[in-house]
């Protein structure tokens, strides 16, 4: 790893100030993506600004159907929060399958969303839940936040502080994990928001990162059943192709995972 | 730039001067001489480097020492009570839960963490399936895992 200067911010203002002062500063939360990347010398920030100690950055608030999750909340805390599990068990279950226990103890929802890895789990949840990504500057709809592989709407120095959404009436996330890394080869989050408002989001498969599957959403709006989407194909032209699986394979997985998710959502 | 850090390691207050890029595992092994914590992969996959920070298992190869400043760290050296092994250590010994022993410190630290979490989340029977799923982040090149799982089942009962 190249040399870097570590700073611990205690407020958003301090974090923003430290970011401006650094030559090529980067924020760090759980470090479960950034530290390995720095060790491989694929990133070399001059300054690291730790966001985990900022007051109010972590924790889960549930009131009625409204859910707000602080950006520095760990995957472990999302997976074990009883109030969240009561209104949106699909999200808690998703968090419980990210990486392994040690990764879940450090990794955060804000870090995962800011990183927008094309195989990460949370981006699919954010899109399907119609979440709002709250930053220190503004609120961004998930639909406008994820901009392709590792690309988001975040401006330089902008900090995610929380995500917020209304709990769906039913939802499920099913992923086909890469047998070695456990990242999604394809993961589908299906959420029914009532009155025919269905959202289907796919991660791990698309060659431009997470995406909504509009054809499936339409079919499920009329008939929320696995059969309703059984014949809906996904174009292999839009799929990732790598040593783990080619585009045709992933296109097929999208349908299988989506049907399983619908069946599981009930 | 180096900075001063201090933390509790195995119940002892320690201080040190580290670079921003110093990893917790380097601080433990090279500054404190606690070489029980191993580096297997150095790519966050294998779990040989697992220690507890503030009561939770983490991969010390994927955490900066400075980020653990002020924390409470427990390593494999901190589990035994004098010459009396921790029940999980005894269970690994009695169930032949190791061969070369390289993965063992991380396995045991993960195992203790998993039993602690299981107990605080209501307990109940810790099934073989659950133990195997929980070992997702710990890789062993020798044993084939069978005896590790058996050891954890026994260790959980004794804890
Ligand atoms: C072995 C292993 C297995 C994994 N498996 C999975 C898996 O199955 N599924 C999955 O989804 N992920 C997986 N991950 C990734 C893990 O979920 C990470 O925790 C997550 O991607 C990043 O979160 P973090 O808090 O660690 O972010 P960091 O590594 O700290 O940061 C990641 C990026 O986000 C930026 N950032 C961090 N916080 C903020 C913020 N609040 N505002 C703005 N920018 C911010 C950083 O500057 C950096 O660019 C795995 C990781 C490992 C090591
Ligand atoms: S050495 Fe840390 S996970 Fe392998
Ligand atoms: S006993 Fe040799 S790696 Fe596990």
Describe this structure in words.
The complex is a heterodimer of chains A (266) and B (159). Chain A is built from 12 helices and 12 strands. Chain A has 266 residues and is α+β, with helices and mostly antiparallel strands. Chain A has 3 domains: 5-48, Uridine Diphospho-n-acetylenolpyruvylglucosamine Reductase, domain 2, CATH 3.30.43; 60-166, Uridine Diphospho-n-acetylenolpyruvylglucosamine Reductase, domain 3 (2-Layer Sandwich), CATH 3.30.465; 170-265, CO dehydrogenase flavoprotein, C-terminal domain (Enolase-like, domain 1, 2-Layer Sandwich). In chain A, strands 4-5-8-6-7 form a 5-stranded antiparallel sheet. Chain A has a 4-stranded antiparallel sheet with strand order 9-10-11-12, with helices on both faces. Chain A has a 3-stranded parallel sheet with strand order 1-3-2, covered by helices on one side. In chain A, a hairpin with a 3-residue loop joins strand 6 and strand 7 (139-141). Chain A is globular, with a radius of gyration of 18 Å. The model of chain A has no long low-confidence stretch (mean pLDDT 97). By secondary structure, chain B is of the alpha+beta class. Chain B has 2 domains: 2-78, Ubiquitin-like (UB roll) (Roll), CATH 3.10.20.30; 87-158, DNA polymerase, domain 1 (Orthogonal Bundle). Chain B has a 5-stranded mixed sheet, with helices on both faces. In chain B, a hairpin with a 2-residue loop joins strand 1 (2-9) and strand 2 (12-19). The longest helix of chain B has 17 residues, at 104-120. The mean pLDDT of chain B is 96. The interface between A and B is medium-sized, with 28 and 30 residues.
